[in-house]
Amino acid sequence: MNRIGEKIMSRLRAIRVFIPCAAVLLFVAMLPQCGSLGFGARDFEKVSENGFDAADNEVDHNDYAWAMRYFQADGAEDGYVYVGTGNNIANLIYYYFTTLASGGEILDAPVTPPEIRRYRPDQGPTTWERVLDYRDVQNEGEYQTTGFRFMGTYEAVVDTKGDLVRANYLYAATQGLESELWRSRTGDAGDWEVVFTTGEYGPSIRYFCTHKGKMYLAMAYDTFEQDPHPGELWVSDDGLNFTPVMQDGFGNANNRGVEFVVSFNGWLYAGTKNDVEGYEIWKLDGPEGGTDFVKVVDKGATDPVNEIAGTPVIFKDHLYVGSIIFFGFNPQQMQGFKGCDIIRLDTDDNWDVVVGPHSTSGYDSGFNYFTNAYCWWMEEHDGWLYAGTWDQGTVLSWILDNIPELIEFVQSAGGDEKAVLQELERLDLLYTGTHAGADIFRTQDGDHWIPVTTTGFDTPGNYGWRTMESTPDGYLYLGSANPVDGLEVWRAKTPED
Length: 497
Prior knowledge:
Blueprint: H1 3-30, E1 45-46, H2 54-60, E2 62-71, E3 80-87, H3 89-101, E4 115-119, E5 128-133, E6 145-160, E7 163-176, E8 178-184, E9 193-200, E10 204-211, E11 214-220, E12 232-236, E13 243-246, E14 257-264, E15 267-273, E16 281-284, E17 294-297, E18 308-315, E19 318-324, E20 329-330, E21 335-336, E22 342-345, E23 351-355, E24 372-381, E25 384-391, H4 393-400, H5 403-413, H6 417-426, E26 440-443, E27 449-453, E28 464-470, E29 475-481, E30 489-493
Antiparallel strand pairs: 1-30, 2-3, 3-4, 4-5, 6-7, 7-8, 8-9, 10-11, 11-12, 12-13, 14-15, 15-16, 16-17, 18-19, 19-22, 20-21, 22-23, 24-25, 25-26, 26-27, 28-29, 29-30
């Protein structure tokens, strides 16, 4: 073929490629939903040092961005993103399991004090101001609180010169030997008070929400007891005084925790932890009032192995719920290595599966990865729903790929798990051949999901996306769980019109 013929054939090939691509672009442009293209991995930037700062992280091990909330105080010009830490969590879990396996008692757990920080980009791109530190609450050597498990806002009743008015407060719930509920009207350091405590060996406050002007607390027993107490639900109409609504796991002792509460369709919905029969979802206090309990989902929805209904979000007039299998294995059923499922409830409590067996999306459990054992957080932002996972692939890679080195180093390090992980990372033996690093997927309709990252933003130590927060100024914040290097916070911003 001469040169002229080659040029003609080259142009024909280019046209054959261009026409279908142009057709796809035209089709996408004509879609009614495409007001926003959503975020990809490249849209996110890291806005924190690991563990907030090296010196503090070295001592306190700020592993988890366990709680996150945007809060703007009444009358304030600016709002801030607040993060509550979970400290030394991976090492605590390791300690609990090894201590119980050896027949010992949990007496000297390696607890380090958590804190709350808020983002101050006006002071620096990675500046997080400390506003509450448990080093100022409990004495060194007597630390009993492991982290701030959940944060939210509520308009509480305030007595102002004899007049009762509503004021916006930021609330933060802890987990520890004695779980506490803190609040602040400004979010500033020195302006925090404890308004409720569950008592020693009481449940932890896993979640709370506002429903019909009242504040509901979801409580779970996170202990490793042989016969744990069932989950509880408490309520307050002023944000200060709390009374129990339910303390028997909705009549099922195997519901050892209420993991979430959310107001949807005029009802209060609650999801449970049930590692024997699978999670349940209940509703109460509907449009007609009253507190009758109605069960709407049981047996883990798709699979009894789904022990926790842990992640709720309301998206496009539906309630989405993501499942969790704690640390990827259910010892009660001796089942595990199964990915999370996401179901979707409509206003008549009909539900379908959007991620899991026979799903509308085509994704099997864990977005096709069994290692995604948790759907750990879901958040709506600019018309998209984002779902983050906890990926046990990171943990499995530490174990499966490095068994000889792991055994040798554990013996030489005296069982210090954090030192083990850091040493293995230094030796560059981690993460090979496994799906390591937590995932984020997004969807505009619940049925078609697009991966944002499947590698923890190329950081396998980010084994979970624990929190997300959409803010009024157009940012989506992500908080990671990273037991190797310390938590990370990332954000992306929706382009302005």
